[in-house]
Write a structure and sequence with these properties.
Chain lengths: 683, 488
Amino acid sequence: MRLFRVLAPLALLATLSGMDLRAQDPALKETFQQAKALWGIQGDNPGASAKFEQILGALEPKGKTLEGEWLQMLCETYNWLAILDDRSATKKPRAQKDLEALLELNPDFDMDRIITNARLQGVFEALRSSRLVRVKLALDPEGGILAVDGRPRQSAALKFLPPGNHKLTYAKTGYQSAEQQVDLSLKEPKSLEMKLTRVSSTVSLCTSPAGIEVLLDGKSLGTSVGIAAPELRPMAEKAGVRLEELSAPFVVGDLPAGRHTLELRAPCFRTRRIELDPSYATPFADHTLEAYKLDASRGLLTVSTAGPGGELLLSGKPYGPVPVKDLQLCSGSYDLQVRFPAGGFTERVEVPDGKSVQVNARPKVRMLYLGCEGSDDFAGRERMLRLLASFGERLKTVAFMLPAKGETPQEALTRIRTTKEAELTLTVRPRSGKPIHEIELVVSTLQGEEDRSVVKPLEQDPLAALAARLNRLPRLWEPWVGLNLLDLPGEIGPWVLRADETALRAGIKTSRAITQVNGKPVTSVMAFRKALAEAPGERIALAQGEAPIQLPVTQQALELPLNASDLCYPFVLAELRLRYLGAKGDEAGLLRLNQALALMHFRLFGPAMEVLRDARMTGTKGVSQGTLDYYTGVCLLRLGNVYADIASQSFNQALKYPQATLFGPEGPFVAPLARQALEDLKP
Amino acid sequence: MHLPLSRIRSASLALAVCLALGAQDGDIAERLFQSGERAYGAKSYPEALETWGQLLQQAPKSPFCAQALLRMARYQLEVERKSEAALPLLERIKTEHIKTSWAAEAMLLRGQILASQARKAQDLREAVGEFNRVVDLFPDQPAVLPAHYHLGLAARLQGQWARALKHFTEALRLDPTSPIAPMAQLQMGDLLDVMGDLQGCLLLLQGIRTQFPQSPEAQEAEWRIAVRVKHRIQKPTLKSEGPWPQGRAKGWLKTPTLLATGPKGELFIYQDDLDRAFVLQGSELAPAGAASKSAKAMTVTAAGVPWLVSAKVGITREEGATPLLLASLTAPNGAFLDGWQNLWVSDAKVACITLVAADGTSRSLPSPTATAMAALPTGGAVLASDANRSLLFLDAAGQPRLTVPYSKDLPASVKYVLALCADATGHVAAIVDGDYEGVVLWGPDGSLLRHATFKALGLNGKFRAIALDHQGGIVLADRSNDLLIRLN
């Protein structure tokens, strides 16, 4: 590694000199060569003159802002034009001006002695002597950056300066900067010396590619840039990269004594760490490390969804429709978003290097906060509005959106009804009173099903209850192994009252206690349910004091309650409507049933009936087809006597499923209730 | 009611302040109501009532009037214990403030008062009407849930099991996490058992234990599950645990002749030599209820007070109350209180059951002459008739629903029932005599569940009283050895 230390100053120089190469039109170089050829080979002075004028026209307006090669080209052009103008009778007076411009542009310029005659050289030197003072500057060490009167120079070489006071500053990484004031007088050449004191070591390195962030002991120092100079080709070859793929050297200065860690990192690349032992810091020296090639770092992302029509965006960039399988991505964090025709899904995902990440994008209900209705002021208004502005941070299952700037609640509502970009709205409605101390938080679906909660804006956390209700999704399924269990005194575990055929065939014995679930003791029905809910996989091992018995874990349907105080029914309804999109079979039937129940909460028996009419479930036990038929009858009854006959048919239909239950697999049978309903319908 | 002058002044001052402030009617009404609330909260009832009275006068159309009337009705009911005085206040809410949400609560409360006063099915009609109105007129109100629960109770009282089940189910469907949910679930469980669905019953009761483990209903469910499983599913052979409570030897009692189980499972023992009932607390006895000489029947009220029936003394109820003498009582041998608070009394010498109402009036239900009688959870009774050598299961109206010969499925014939009891889950137990001498346990459907002869049990004594406990045991009183024996 130390072999490369010597290359560092060269590389630095190359970086500085090559800095401006891409700033001008490369065709000018061609023009410059043509002009020189016209004069030198063809003797076409007017032609050459015209070409040089062309270059002058392009570069002269930029004047002193030019750097490197282009500055040199402009200087040489002045030199050429001075020669040409000097030979033309009509343009001769202009030769003096060319030399003055040249001197103005670069006082240190050395005229080309081969092409410039002695007279013209003398004129130039006389002109320089009359305006500038010759200085002889010795810099130790070389390779630093010299600034005259605060303006950095591209080259540390300095021969002439205008008379008067000047401030010279010389700096180099790893050295303490030096500053010197000089007072120059015409005709009095001056020798100057600037010697820097070494204060630390430096470490320089090149990266492939450029754009790699360099950190020293965890602190970012900057990013590698540029392209390595040709001198660094051996370094590129050793690293196995092309020269163009290697950055210009990145210099780490002021390296304190002791051991250090350099870290090279960039998105999409594996981070590299370089340990620097104390010898890099002391004794002070310039160290050049080898070139570091960073390997690409990628992971796979799979996005599945049950919702149809979703479009994937990663950190705002579209990636087409979902589902997406094994999408190759740079490792790192992404804001994953899936836009559905109804509902949305957002999640921050981390894609680790070489790993596969699975995301199930379930569409989330979107809620637009419309604002505060009316202009009535109320106590704590500002506080309340502030809390609402950040309400989304408290919601796990709802995507919360704020209205557009300056939009009134009515305008926001009209917009959302047109664009259908949200399923729910939230409105603040002050309650009448003088002064107003209470407000209503109104959550509504776009169809108008409303939930109102009254809060006091100045209470401890006026949004806590609503946040809790919006974060609560009712369970629609529960894990099931076909066992009905009881807690009995004297039994060491839940006692098997009833077992289905599968469980009996597997070896489960009724009238005996379950002693273990997946190898762990279980002492009550509650503990059993908890263990079942937490059990991974699709099978579970149960023991009844003997060898464990493997049982399949299935899911049994549940009903949602009609009027639970911990549920926000507009949200539940919107959620069920979203889940129904793309649902099939019994799942679709159950979602329809629960949609109907949510509508029954709002006493919308007609719409509930519509929903139930399309629902079908193939199961005959638990919450199943018989349950659907029973609720169909209930809805019809609530629509009035005119539907009594059809309601009777529904209840009779329900009776065909004697194992159908309400609420869940262990709820009461539908049959006696259907029979009672039929009894009530008798005239 | 006399109000202290200072209170009247403070209430008047509150009104004056309101008027002086130039407040609107609505403001006055609200402030008067709140002022009354504050006073009520501080238990300054006269001040509260006076303030609310002013509210009713000053702003009779304000919705706060409905709220104030409701508070005043609750005061009459809960503080003064005068339900009759509460009714007109509630009716006023119904007539004058039917459009307010408070009307729902008023109707619910009125229905509850009327239901508690009902002594026969017809009496329930108005209460049921109120509950139905709550459900129909105020479907958004929280009162709907308790209204369904009370509709269920009313239906159950009338023996309409399926209708009762429907209402309890509605209550549960509305909010399975409400405080009423475990109560409704407990009722549903017992109803399913009555309707023949034992497994459904057990699962609902287990649901209470899982979902509401700390509730009183969970404790009820625990023993109701345990005894049902033990007696009807496990049916272990009856064995004697010997004298009970453990450590109590022969002679610790003074002629125990009657046993009864209280609502919390506590055992009541009538000791003939001491002429009164005692409640067993741990292994100690504590006097309970009033004394009565030569009591031949005992029942325990829902409040845990033993009532004694004696031919000589009559019906002895709460301590201090004059016993109720009934001329028709000659040889009482069974008694219990039904859901209407009528006391059913059977008599060995009369071919009928006497129903004694709370006001002391009585009527007769024709029946065979009873040897013993016990209450069933259906609201009816089980009657032992030695003449027919059968158990007769009567419904709440006294109509026979089931007849079970004593000896059915037993290895030997039973001629006499010496003592009879039943528990709240419908199990019926008897001490029997004849070719088969021992203890027999039947299910609510009359099926034979468990039985054992005294010989097999290794028992020797004069057993004349029996009780079923909440742990699935059967307690026998041995009057000759003055002790209790527990079978398990």
